[in-house]
Design a protein that fits this description.
The protein is α/β, with parallel strands linked by helices and 220 residues long. Helices cover 52% and strands 13% of the residues. The protein has a five-stranded parallel beta sheet with strand order 2-1-3-4-5, sandwiched between helices.
Length: 220
Amino acid sequence: MIRVLLADDQALVRAGFRSILEGEEGIEVVGEAADGGEAARLARQHCPDVVLMDIRMPGVDGLAATREIAANTRVRVIILTTFDLDEYVYGALRAGASGFLVKDSEPAELIHGVRVVARGDALIAPAITRRLIAEFAARVTHPDPRPRLSALTQREREVMVLVAEGLSNSEIAARLVLSPATAKTHVSRIMTKAQVRDRSQLVILAYESGLTVPGWLAES
């Protein structure tokens, strides 16, 4: 059973999400919060698998709440945005969010997103990915090699670069002529060695460490 906490200052929005999620087998809504402070408290209290977090709420906003939840629990957070190019996307990832959903997503996308994040994968819509990479490139003027990457083997570095390009485990396996299970094992080991929560954090680390750069910068 995937346990979900809803955090949004609009009661009708929460009711809509609850209706969609509770109609799906294997998903249970364990609580609702109207602001970030309440969301962080309920996350500690109920230990859900996933929090659906609105980014803009009165009092403690979703960004601060995500930072607190990521720092103090193993709960994963999906940020809910009004637009796919929300100005807080980069900051939310840095705060520890595992992915993003646009509020007007189809019910099937919401359900899929909850399942993806609950199993430990990152959820970043294609429309958001390119902007994120551009943000990484613009902000990282002096890459930090990070001691965490020194423990990676050459193969693991190759895999991490492909993760940063947005490839799935199956796509990584095909690119490197590996079995999907081996690719998945490499990704899991990399996350353990790099001390990151999920693939989105791995992408951030790949760019901030200088392990990889956007293709258009590499060609310039």
